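Quick one: structure tokens for this chain, please?
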Amino acid sequence: MGSVIFAAAARQWKQMRRDYQDYLEAQMRAAQEELGLNLLRRGSEASAESVFTGSVAHAERHASPELIEWWAHHGRMTVEEFERWWFEEER
């Protein structure tokens, strides 16, 4: 029989990841509705999802100036930031 504490933590982590995916999809959809396809800098080979989920340096290097401005108004949470927020909300 496995650890009940580990099993509970694993379920909690999986739920957080599902919630983050929902958050990410909503953010990307909202940005695309407002900015159209203008999410990446011209010539960038990054994916739109990677600029939402990657490091701040990656986002600043590949996101369009319009998307960076959009984040200033709407926020941008990496999974690590979301996890901290989510955990505090659950408590």
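The two ends are 27 Å apart (CA to CA).
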